[in-house]
Specification:
With 88 residues, the chain is mainly alpha-helical. The chain is built from three helices and no strands.
Length: 88
């Protein structure tokens, strides 16, 4: 049976280094009740970032599928030629 997110046995302890201003902001969020702990705040932030990256990857995949896929070697060469003739 799978473990639900949020259960203690599904977590791993890590050590991270944060800029002092970022950490102060996180602690302020906890003090204001926007998060239950520093760990909960950071866990949420990481989840949001992973979701954003996943959504971006899906969008790119859809765009590539709609355009016929990734550029061919010939298309890349033509793009490089065009870019190099306009670079000064």
């Amino acid at each position: 049976m799978g473990t639900m997110l949020g259960m203690t046995d599904s977590r791993a302890r890590v050590t991270i280094t944060l800029d002092q201003e970022l950490l102060s902001g996180v602690k302020a969020a906890v003090d204001q009740g926007r998060a239950s702990s520093v760990s909960a705040y950071i866990e949420h932030a990481v989840g949001v970032q992973l979701d954003a990256e996943s959504g971006f990857d899906a969008t790119i995949a859809e765009m590539l599928a709609g355009s016929g896929g990734p550029p061919t070697d010939e298309e890349r060469a033509e793009a490089q030629r065009l870019l190099s003739t306009h670079a000064a």
